[in-house]
Amino acid sequence: MLGKRIYEIMSTKVIHIQENDSLEMAFRLFEENRISGIPVMNAQGQYVGVLSKTDLVSTKMMHMMQEKRSPSEIYVREFMNPNPPISLDQYDSVDEAIEQMYHNGVHRVFVKNDDGNLVGVVSTFDIVKLMRGVAQANLLKSY
Q: What is the pTM of this model?
């Protein structure tokens, strides 16, 4: 539909966090980098999950706040989604990224290169920017 490959629209700045890092660190990374989700790595360097802002807005977080636990005392592993991040090949189509986001109910997919390394991320924001550009181009063609 959109005729683009993931590598053409992905963000190449991949930020990650360790599962034993604190939520305080996660909050700082979310704010400083203006992101809403981050892949989580274990001590062996494997991607073991994703932490999103949505994961943090939960009953579990409310209970921890009521217990007066500080974000510096809470580990990422306590809140992350323990499923490995959804990832696609950098040469897959943007349409495939949209399908995976929709099918899995997520707002981002991570992008791997031929060696299996994470090299980028495509978010719903990237898709919206692309669609806006396509719509503007189609509008100009109609004149």
A: 0.77
